[in-house]
Structures are given as C-alpha cells and as structure tokens.
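Worked example

This section walks through a single chain of length 203. The input is the sequence exactly as stored; nothing has been trimmed or padded.
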Amino acid sequence: MTGGIAVAVPVRAFSGALSRLSGVLDEPQREQLMRAMATRVVEAAGRLPVWVVSDDDEVCKWAVGLGVKVISCGEPGLSAAAQRAVVELANFDVVAVVHADLAIVDTLDGVVETVGKGRCVIVPDYRDDGSNIVCVPTGVGFRFQYGPGSFERHIAEAERLGLEVAVVREEKLMFDLDTPDDLALLSRDQQRALRLGPVGLGS
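Given that input, the structure is written out below as tokens.
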C-alpha cells in the first residue's frame, strides 16, 4: 500500500482549448495559455506525485517531458477522467483532482494541509459554482459530477458517503480562467507570467 496523496490533472487537449476566449485570443495564443497554465498546476504540486489524465498525444508528450506519468481515460469528459484517476490511483489514500486552468496557482499546500482521513476537500471557483480541486479518499465510491453547479453537487456527494467536507477558499486556487472576464482580472504581470502577449486587458 503506497498511501499518501496523489495529484491528478485532467487535460483534454491543448489544441482547441479555451474556446470561450476566441474573441480576445487567437488559437495559438489559447493553446500556449492552456499549456502554460497546466504546467503551472503540475509545478504547484511540488513533491507530490502527479499524473496527467489524457488521451491526447500532444498532451501526453508534454507530460512525459515534465517527468509526469499519464493515465489514459478512454472516454470523454472531465467527470470520467477524474473517476478513472481515482480508480487507477487506488493505492494512494487520497487523490486530489486539480483543474488544469488555475492561472495563478503557485502551491497546493493549502489543500494538502487540510486533507484528512474520511474527509473530502473541495476548492470552489471564485463564483462558488465549479469545483477547481476535489480531494477524495480512494475506495469510497465518490462519483464526480462536473459542470455548472458542481460545487454543490460534490458537497452533496460527499455527504451521501458520510464524508466530512472541508471547503478551502484560497484566491490563487479559486481562480480558474475560462472567459474574457476572467482574463480581464489578470494583472499585466500575471499575464506575462503565463507568457501572454498584450491582449488589451488587465491593469
């Protein structure tokens, strides 16, 4: 039994990512942004073991280049990817499923320090709608239900299983980048850290 915490980062693809930003960023910019954010998330895990969950060849090559192992999902969708990760990493006590679009994350320590036996740890997005990070004990049958309103659904799922729920609200973990409005909240320095060229946003 390995035990401890594993981090799973689902990444569907870099190509075609962040389509809701198409009005302000062209396709190469969006692809570069997605790659930069995903890299940032992997690096934020520090010494924790990380697996990228993807069936995309380009993503798999990127992950291997970072020294990260890959889990093949085999079916589409974020919920399916998270579910597969928890099954594949069942030798760990806890799996932290972390979104790949956390633009300003620098460490997952705030989540790791909250993890405990019989506890589900959730980081919502800054709208209290989505679930940027969900840490679940393995072997309990947790059912991931991503999409609009997933934060409340994941709380309800944890309660169904009799798990204690801990909600972590750290700004850098709650900020996911999906829309032009999100992009506008980034400062110029934060944009540069993601290797974005001038897009007429931020301050």
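What to look for: Residues 27-44 form the longest helix (18 residues).
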